[in-house]
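Collaboration report, partner site 2.

Our partner group contributed sequences for two proteins of shared interest, and the home lab folded both. The records are reproduced in the order in which they were received, starting with the first partner submission.
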Amino acid sequence: MRAKLIVFPIRARNWCFTRSIDHSLPPPPSSSASSFKELWNNINNAEKSFNAKAELCTDYVADKMNNGWVTLEKAPDGSLKKKIHGLGLWLLSRVKPSEIFLKSISKEVTGVEIVYPSSLNAQLVRRRLRHIAMRGTTVHRKFFYGSVSLIPLSSALSILPLPNVAFFWILYRSYSHWRALQGSEKLFQLVSNSSNSSITFTDKKGTEHSDSQSESLSSDKPHCILSPSEELEKLVHQEDGNDGLSRDTITEICKLYNLNTKDVIKYEKSIF
């Protein structure tokens, strides 16, 4: 599956990195176990690798958290569960957009098409994506281990006669950092020049030019396609001043490329 990534400067040195939402793709099939007994049996399968077992545990926890979140969302207004849901929305709004972007690079992604304003240098765009992937690997690995270490401490709060919000939030952050870490490693692999990754540049006429010395005639489709866009260039540079893009322009770009407007706006104040 090829993911379309949209890159453009949004304010001064702040660039937006986001993935286009493809509504035509069906949701990936769930591989999570329906019960803890089934999960335990799958983990004890000697044929599965450590990474495969870790994925099973992660999918199981994610499935349970999603079910719990849906329950909170459907709670009646004014109830404690609804207030907890509101608190969760507030906490989620403070998650950095780069983390959301890296999480969108799932294990099903086998290639990326990078769309950017035609005035930007293609090598600069790719270097900045590599920088985000490299730093994401370091940052989210550190925070993943930190969040996991807090799970036993937060679970002790379950003795209180209140919902253990801290435990579920730390559990979610552990899962989120794990997914961002996996996305960082995947993105770095796709946008780097190596024997396992080929880079293709698309010029204004739509002609593709390979940039991988190890690419053979029998190789698969390129892992990374850099596509300069005149249309995105016009939208980004239709405004003067140093205050960045207006909300109307951001909304127009989001509609054009099927982006999440709230996530894009976060980049106004976030460099990484």
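Second partner submission, folded after the first:
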Amino acid sequence: MTTPADPPAGAPPIALSPEEYERVQASPEFQELRRRFRTFAFPMTGAFLAWYLLYVLLSTYAVDFMSTPVWGNVNVGLLLGLGQFVSTFLITWLYVRHANRSLDPAADRIRDEMERGEI
């Protein structure tokens, strides 16, 4: 049972001023959280885009290679295309693991410190 003082589910428990949010954003803890996110997200995004571009370029300019049969009617292009789906799921799994281990605990600490007024 909630009391009138309890915030609605999902709402922040306290309202912070823009200055307080700016102070949190400038804190070393928040900067470290941003660094952890960026050191994973940017390289992974670049690698995936390069892999996707390679697939598109091979499909356009290396038709003979992409149509090379592997077994039966399955060719290299089909395998690389299916590899796009596999790599998408792999990247998603890696990000969730990274977030659970590295990002979420740090974000929870920052939120708790914000709510207590320590940052």
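Feedback sent to the partner group on the second submission included the following. The radius of gyration is 23 Å. The mean pLDDT is 90.
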